[in-house]
């Protein structure tokens, strides 16, 4: 039984957190500090952990995203998601206006909105709670991306007020704000990964991520532009959007009533330059007839409404001279070509560089030495070269030839089958790779070593004090003090930071090693599965691919990593330095021994607990959670939509399969 006061406290906490979440993410008017917000959230988390029966899929704690990998179910849209007629000219808007004048007998009003440049979403609410979110897909059916959408803080999980229909749908645009896009792309470039071409691609790509945890980290946002569903005493679009704002949705203030065509043109002209100041991309203006009865009279063609039209701004382009192509080497050895340009003004900034992504891109553009190129910045931060002005090409100029050797260490580059990028294979000696690995190791998401920033690491390399990550643990206070950048306090900080990192849990160390393709989530999965680094080291390719979410590419990369004698020596030195190379045991934290030593695999989605919580429960009851089914598996807890391959294998091996409910009955017994 849950004590009454606990249930009340949980309810109150949820309401308070939802209110502050809205103030922060929708209204940008926070009333409490991040610290206070986090404490409220952790109070709620603690209570939900203690009383798992209280967990609710629309609790604010569920926004972080679980580790569940989901394929996407295809869902039919109740009302098709149509697109809009597009135009780039005021003449065509005048024609649109004249067509309406012919069809309507009564005066009408327009609502002008910005056209948000992201990816469309339809979100259904039932009884005030987020029910399902579906992408546009082909307009008739799309992907169910509910788990991903729930991580977006500006989308309410539970609505404010009580005057919403029992069931209705909002449509809106999911986008990635500029600041987030910049941050992610800078990081991708540093890691030698392909940057996203623009925030729209980044948002669309993120929404289709199979792992909601990754989505949560990418900090998407959403603006609502349309509300479906009747049973509201409102007869027009503008008031319906304002109502949706009261329920908690993010509706920008840029929306405006326009009574005449001239007011529409003014709106378009005003926002043509003003939109550059917005923290997100817009690519035009949508003009809608406001009243629903008039919208109905105008109706639809087969594909588009007759009561709305999109005016698209021309994307800004400029032409400039390509001065050179240079090549950056990331920490994994991936090569990224960069175009260096004669400085040119574009969308309010001076552009000097554009990413060329890879060799195919250079070939596709057929870039020649001395070319004049067109650069485009459709709101995206990294401008791209969209073509060459061949009329200005110098006579006899040669096409650009992609480099064959590393610009930093002269090693011959390799390009693996099916990979877009070239790599420098000299992992052991290429300076930016060596430095990049140390920078990655010390970074916040890996070992989080305070006092060792990128510049400091450069300095340690320049002074021959560090060549690899294990060298960090041999550094002394006296050595640091001799360097320019260091004073007593900063040297102490760095040494303390390094010392403290020895307590970092095993998954962080594993991620910090920088094994190609082993990101944060994979590192966590591998650490939990193998328990000890020494076991992972010995794992074969065949054993590795049986682990959840580990495919052939990752498995091969792990095998290659441990096949290198240098890496083995490095790990031995890390072990000697005292780093954590195994998972902590759950000793002292046991609730029962009912699963005594049994190896338990979980698969699919669970309704009352998250996968992480379920894993914890298995350990607390004496069991061991493993990721892959094998002969030694004793029990399989099957959730919703579990993978057919797992089910087949478990049946073949005669493993006992139980449901989530069976499991709870078992541990309660
Ligand atoms: S209204 C039936 N309003 O533009 C009317 N759409 O081609 C439905 N979009 O993919 C659309 N901002 O996702 C509308 N303020 C806005 C919009 C907007 C962006 C997108 C929408 C759709 C495309 C329409």
Question: Key features?
Answer:
single chain; 669 residues; alpha+beta; Helix Hairpins; D-amino Acid Aminotransferase, Chain A, domain 1; OB fold (Dihydrolipoamide Acetyltransferase, E2P); 6 domains; 24 helices; binds 2-(butylsulfanyl)adenosine
Summarize the structure.
With 669 residues, this protein is of the alpha+beta class.
Q: Order of strands in the sheet with the most strands? A: 2-11-10-3-9
- Cα(first) to Cα(last) distance is 16 Å
What count of structural domains? Answer: 6
Shape: globular
CATH superfamily of the largest domain: DNA ligase/mRNA capping enzyme
Instruction: Find the structural class using helix and strand composition.
Output: alpha+beta
Q: What does the average pLDDT come to?
A: 89
What proportion strand?
A: 15-25%
Helix amount: 25-40%
- CATH domain topology of the largest domain: D-amino Acid Aminotransferase, Chain A, domain 1
By DSSP, the count of extended strands is 20
The hetero compounds bound to this protein are: 2-(butylsulfanyl)adenosine
- Tell me the CATH architecture of the largest domain: 2-Layer Sandwich
Report the sheet with the most strands, covering strand number, pairing sense and barrel closure.
Answer: 5 strands, mixed
Stretches where pLDDT is under 50 for at least 5 consecutive residues are: none
Text of the CATH class of the largest domain: Alpha Beta
């Amino acid at each position: 039984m849950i004590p009454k006061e606990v249930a009340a406290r949980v309810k109150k906490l949820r309401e308070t957190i939802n209110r502050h979440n809205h103030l922060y993410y929708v209204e940008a008017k926070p009333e409490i500090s991040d610290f206070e917000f986090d404490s409220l959230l952790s109070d709620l988390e603690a209570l939900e952990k203690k009383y798992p029966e209280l967990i609710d899929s629309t609790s604010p704690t569920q926004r972080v995203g679980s580790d569940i990998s989901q394929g996407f179910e295809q869902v039919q849209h109740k009302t098709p998601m149509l697109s809009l007629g597009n135009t780039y000219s005021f003449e065509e808007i005048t024609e649109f206006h004249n067509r309406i004048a012919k069809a309507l007998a009564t005066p009408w009003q327009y609502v002008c909105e910005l056209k948000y440049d992201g990816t469309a979403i339809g979100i259904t609410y039932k009884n005030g709670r987020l029910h399902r979110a579906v992408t546009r897909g082909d307009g008739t059916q799309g992907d169910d991306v509910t788990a991903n959408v729930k991580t977006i803080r500006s989308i309410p999980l539970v609505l404010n007020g009580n005057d919403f229909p029992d069931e209705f749908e909002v449509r809106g645009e999911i986008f990635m704000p500029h600041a987030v896009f910049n941050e992610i792309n800078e990081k991708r470039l540093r890691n030698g990964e392909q940057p996203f071409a623009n925030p729209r691609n980044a948002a669309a790509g993120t929404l289709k991520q199979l792992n909601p945890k990754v989505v949560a980290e990418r900090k998407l946002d959403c603006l609502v532009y349309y509300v479906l569903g009747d049973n509201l005493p409102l007869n027009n679009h503008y008031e319906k959007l304002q109502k949706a704002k009261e329920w908690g949705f993010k509706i920008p203030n840029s929306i405006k009533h326009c009574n005449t065509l001239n007011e529409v043109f003014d709106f378009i002209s005003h926002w043509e330059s003003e939109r550059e100041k917005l923290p997100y991309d817009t690519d035009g203006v949508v003009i809608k007839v406001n009243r629903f009865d008039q919208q109905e009279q105008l109706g639809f063609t087969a594909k588009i409404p007759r009561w709305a039209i999109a005016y698209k701004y021309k994307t800004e382009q400029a032409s400039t001279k390509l001065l050179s192509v240079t090549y950056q080497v990331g920490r994994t050895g991936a090569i990224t070509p960069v175009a260096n340009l004669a400085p040119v003004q574009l969308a309010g900034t001076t552009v000097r560089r554009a990413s060329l992504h890879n060799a195919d891109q250079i070939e596709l553009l057929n870039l020649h030495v001395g070319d004049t190129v067109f650069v485009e910045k459709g709101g995206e931060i990294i401008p791209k070269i969209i073509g060459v002005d061949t009329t200005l090409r110098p006579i006899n100029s040669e096409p650009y030839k992609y480099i064959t050797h590393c610009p930093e260490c002269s090693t011959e580059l390799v390009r693996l089958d099916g990979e877009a990028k070239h790599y420098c294979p000299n992992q052991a000696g290429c300076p930016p790779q060596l430095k990049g690995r140390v920078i990655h190791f010390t970074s916040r998401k890996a070992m989080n070593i305070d006092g060792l920033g990128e510049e400091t690491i450069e300095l340690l390399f320049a002074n021959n004090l560090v060549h690899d990550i294990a060298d960090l643990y041999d550094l002394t206070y006296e050595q640091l003090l001799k360097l320019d950048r260091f004073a007593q306090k900063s040297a102490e900080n760095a040494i303390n930071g390094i010392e403290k990192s020895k307590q970092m849990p095993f998954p962080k160390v594993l991620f910090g090693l920088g094994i190609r393709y082993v990101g944060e989530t994979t590192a966590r999965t591998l650490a939990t599965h193998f328990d000890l680094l020494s076991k992972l080291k010995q794992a074969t390719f065949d054993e590795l691919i049986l682990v959840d979410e580990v495919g052939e590419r990752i498995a091969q990369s792990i095998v290659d990593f441990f096949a290198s004698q240098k890496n083995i020596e490095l790990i031995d030195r890390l072990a000697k330095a005292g780093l954590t190379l195994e998972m902590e045991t759950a000793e002292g934290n046991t609730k029962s021994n009912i699963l005594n030593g049994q190896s338990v695999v979980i698969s699919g989605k669970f309704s009352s607990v998250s996968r992480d919580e379920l894993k914890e429960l298995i350990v607390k009851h004496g069991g061991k959670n493993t990721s892959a089914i094998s002969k030694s598996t004793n029990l399989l807890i099957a959730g919703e939509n579990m993978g057919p391959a797992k089910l087949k294998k478990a049946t073949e091996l005669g493993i006992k399969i139980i449901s989530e409910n069976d499991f709870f009955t078992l541990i309660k017994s």
